[in-house]
Amino acid sequence: MKVLMIPSWYPKPGAPLLGTFYKEQAEALAAKGIEVAVAHVSVGSGMVHLSGIRRKVINGVLTYTYTQPNFTPGWEKGRRIQRIRMLEALYRRIEKEWGRPDVVNLRSSLQGYEALALCRKHGLPMFFMEHSSYVLTEKPDSPALERLRAVMGYASVNACVSSALQEVMNPIAETRIIPDPVDGEVFYPKEVRTDPDVFVFRAMGQLRPIKGYDTLIEAFALFKKNTDRPVRLEIAGTGGFRKQLQSKIDSLEIGDCCTLVGAIPRGEAPDFMNGCDCFVCSSRMETLSCVLNEAAACGKPVISTSCGGPLDIVTDETGLLVPVDDAKAMASAMRTMLETARNYDGQKIRELTLERFGRDMVADLLVNACRDAAQTQSPPPQSMGKTKKGLISNLFFETLKIGAVTIGGGFAMIPLLADCYSSKHNWLTKDEMTDVLAVAQSLPGPIALNASVISGYRAGGVAGGIAAGLGMVLPPLIIMSLIATGYTWFRTNPYVAAAFHGIQACVCGLLAWATVTLGKNAIKKGRGIWTTAVFGAALVLSLLTRLHALFFIGGGLLAGFIFQALLASEKHYDKRVD
User: What does the pLDDT look like over 38-75, one tens digit per residue?
Assistant: First the structure.
């Protein structure tokens, strides 16, 4: 069986530890006799970036990476468009050199739209595996969770790494739990301590606010005040929060026993784990926490916050759980661990960890999921498993039906078109549909025809745009030709006039519904105040002045450019994506 893994992030120059668990799981599949290739695309955060396609075989895994500069800085959707094109180019080379995969294994939905575009175009089945914590932190109506739902709707098999993620994902589609594995041959107990008289707590992870290291440092300061024994806290990792953490250490005057030790090379991680008496996870949110399992595989007891994934890991036999962001509770747990760490059975901790999270056991679960997905090949919700011809005919006939009942002008078509493309067939997301309508309104010509052609093109390429355009034009052309032959009768018939009065009222209701639903989607997370201000200004000016519509369109265009420039300058976009 051939498995093509598409990771949303992966180790690369300058970030060798990024996505190491993806790399290790690909290697675990290869060790089980599965042919594995990795396809990773990365768009740089700036205009200067190491570019091109690279091919390597790493520990039995054929690895393709494609990197390029970001040609749309400050515009995340532009990066997505670039990655879709890059992934397609990468796949064509992979298929030529390696062959067609039996299944695509998407790792995290952060690049979900990119993987969906590839799978739909080539009719590839998907096994989707979620790792990212955004599933637990985003609101249900967020674009991120809309993307998650789109991916899960297509995938033949869905899985996640913990019960915390499963609880959110199961209502969308049936979801398996396949935890991240720990390699017991790499992480095992060994003696590396240099000063056994000092009780050492250690933590490891990116220096970001979500890791809760500020609370951990505060807890350690409280704990240290209440003990006379020599103790240390060492935190490994790099990140943008280092300066703030160091400032906190300095202000609490614990720099002599609390240290930020920087990045630990992957090969030295087992020694780092073995060099402590207790390993600590202080995160505010974790999907699983690989480092907890790695420390436990070394036989070390752990302390963790009850932040999601660790609830699947920590038991009474392996360590202690404390509330999130509770410095006093963490300090109390550290004091308890100082007194009781010797009572934990290190060999038992290791056995329990490998029994639940061992590499071979997890690799078997991954192999089964890949095989199930490859064998199922169930058609996705938007019927993209059909031939290209079938999609084009669908676009034509669906738009034809809309065109036949669009009475009251182009705007009356908006709710029907949005419902058809976004809800009924999932050809476009609500986010994409909003953009389509914005562009259609800004272009010359009838909005009905503009929106149909653009949305058809986005769903089915040039042929899709032509099909949707014809479907929208034919009904009014035929109907108006018939009406022209009996214009006098239509103009004077009281029943026709009464019918149109009722239809006009209905159209007003449809327009109101479309305004509310699309308006809610347009005011996106992180942009609500800005877009609300632009909306309010446009509404007030339209009510109080007689400015031409071009003024509002141009003003909105200028406001959008200014906002994107501000976002780029403040580095607002989430660094989790490349």
Answer: 999 988 754 444 578 889 998 889 999 998 888 877 77
Token output for 457: 């093109």
What does each C-alpha distance from 237 to 141, 240, 441 come to in angstroms? 33, 10, 49
Q: Over range 233-260, report the average pLDDT.
A: 95
Residue 258: the pLDDT is 96
Q: Which helix (H) or strand (E) holds 434?
A: helix 430-442
CB 134 within 8 A of CB 308: no
Buried b (16+ CB within 10 A) or exposed e, 252-284: bebeebbebeeebeeeebbebbbbbbbbbbbbb
Helix (H) or strand (E) holding 62: strand 61-68
- Between β-strands 175-177 and 199-204, what pairing exists: parallel, antiparallel or unpaired? unpaired
DSSP string across 241-267? THHHHHHHHHHTT-TTTEEEEE---GG
Identify residue 270 by its one-letter amino acid code.
P
SS3 (DSSP) at 124? coil
Domain(s) labelled CATH 3.40.50.2000 in the chain stretch across: 2-181+368-376, 199-355
- How is residue 221 written in tokens? 């300061």
CATH number, domain 199-355: 3.40.50.2000
Buried b / exposed e along 430-451 (16+ C-beta atoms within 10 A)? bbbbbbbbbebbeeeebbbbbb
Both tokens of residue 351?
Answer: 């056995």
Q: The pTM is what?
A: 0.65
Domain 2-181+368-376 falls under CATH 3.40.50.620: no
